[in-house]
Known about the structure:
This protein is of the alpha/beta class. The chain is 42% helix and 17% strand. The mean pLDDT is 96.
Amino acid sequence: MTQTYSPIIWKENKLYLLDQRLLPQTEHFVEVNTLKECATAITDMVVRGAPCIGFSAIYGMALWVKVQKDLTVASARAACDEMINARPTAVNLSFEVNRCFEIMKASIENKETNAGLFEKLVSFGHEQIHQSEVKNTKMAKIGFDELKKKFGDKKWNLMTHCNTGFLACGSIGTALGVISYSNKQNQVAHVFADETRPYLQGTRLTAFELSKENIPYSIVVEGAASYLMSHGKIDAIFVGADRIAANGDTANKVGTSTLAIVAKNYNVPFYVVAPISSFDITIPDGSHIEIEMRSPTEITELKGIKLAPPGAQTVNPSFDVTDHRFITGIICEKGLINPANVGELVRVVNS
Ligand code: MRU
């Protein structure tokens, strides 16, 4: 990767988050000092992307522990729940915060000092970011091998939705990791990044990352997907995930499901790339995933400029669920899962 910084910085016991709302025009870090500030930064999408939400929350829990006078298991649970409520769809948030809770509970029961617990949580945050880099690199290679098997040496035209690179993951990325790795092997002809309305993760963030890596790309409106596929311009599509159910149904940024259905129509392979921390095998299928609804102004306004008539009603789901039948493969750090094989996903997670 050519990125020179991480979107999450822990320095001198303070958390700094790159304000992704301002990208690509301004690269500004926000200082975060409390659990509340961290949860608000997650809700307001200063930091975003399932893995980075989870990592930021770990440091947020450390900041909370630091200022507690009477730390109890009950107060720790309440604080964890407050953090988990910051955004509902990405399971990475509860996955990481619940692991923090286990560390906190053990420490409280063992009567360790707050200072000791604080250090433990900070180290846990560092370790998760490091491990995610290792896992993402594994997934990138698996995705590359799959493309090589399918398409051989001809250069590939790839499409992606939303943002799944270092801004979302703190390292090479998931879906964008496959693209970045394949580009380093000189196998990428062109990348089509759709703009990803309404927050424009594609236009602002994925394009920012692709340009930092000198990967040839075009931004397209989401409605262009059918045009591109029907004209044979896309070899394969790679997206990330916010929560994957036991049967492979996948919640990801709204518009993912539409893209997968169109891809199925044109026989374009559609891959989900996500670490096991994005899997939720406690739910049998995608109907159990809570979909975050966001503010109408994300649709009716653009950077404060009003676009819609006064009083216009909106529906703004931030995610949708792609039925596993439209997914060619799910790539995680343990390998490539074919969601058509009933039970395979759960077996891989438990292996
Ligand atoms: O609302 P966001 O920007 O947090 O949504 C992000 C996505 O949907 C990503 O595709 C997903 O988190 C995977 S990130 C590796």
